[in-house]
Amino acid sequence: MNSIISLNSIRFVGLVLIQVLICSHINFLGYINPYIYVLFIILFPVKNNRSLFIFLSFLLGLTVDLFLDSGGINAAASVFIAYARPVALKFSFGMLYEHQNLKFNTVDFGSKLVYMTIMVVAHHLILFSLEIFSISKIILILQKTLFSSIFTIILCVLITIIFSRKSK
């Protein structure tokens, strides 16, 4: 239990630092900006307290908002995907999630990719909708969501492959 808390604490701080110091300065073609801090929400253990998880997601988004001076949009998007996470887990993993036997290192890559895609696209859609906040600029919202989601998913997959523990 103590190793799970320390691992999640290190993941929280590490992802916030990477987001603030590196990823927030990437703005390729005006549309591509990775938000890899969502990896904390994606990889958070399934069997933990849901209220604590939503609070930690809010704290994660608020911390990123404080550093990026973005007015709470990251916190709102983080809380939304934390709240909607059980739906994405059930859709992606089915019975593994129903029986609470879900370990991200043991599931197949396709299910993991579908889960990451759902979470990242939902996060980015909420984030950019709140950032732009104009229905007349729906094409811009969808462009930013699509391109940033693709880049974020690629980075998240690479990070999970690099830092995954091999289970035997």
Give a structural overview.
The protein is 71% helix and 0% strand. The protein has 168 residues and is mainly alpha-helical. It has a single domain (2-163), classed as Arp2/3 complex 21 kDa subunit ARPC3. The longest helix has 26 residues, at 138-163. The chain starts with a helix and ends in a 5-residue tail after the last helix. The mean pLDDT is 89. This is Rod shape-determining protein MreD. Keywords: Membrane, Transmembrane, Transmembrane helix. The chain crosses the membrane at residues 12-32, 52-68, 113-133, 145-163.
The percent of residues in helical segments reads: over 70%
At the third CATH level, what is the topology name? Arp2/3 complex 21 kDa subunit ARPC3
DSSP strand count: 0
- Average residue pLDDT: 89
Structural class: mainly alpha
Largest sheet, in brief, is: none
Low-confidence stretches: none
Radius of gyration: 16 Å
Number of helices: 7
The structural domain count equals: 1
CATH architecture: Orthogonal Bundle
The shape, in one word, is: globular
Elements, N to C (H/E): HHHHHHH
CATH class descriptor: Mainly Alpha
- Give the termini separation: 20 Å
Protein name: Rod shape-determining protein MreD
Transmembrane segments: 12-32, 52-68, 113-133, 145-163
Keywords: Membrane, Transmembrane, Transmembrane helix
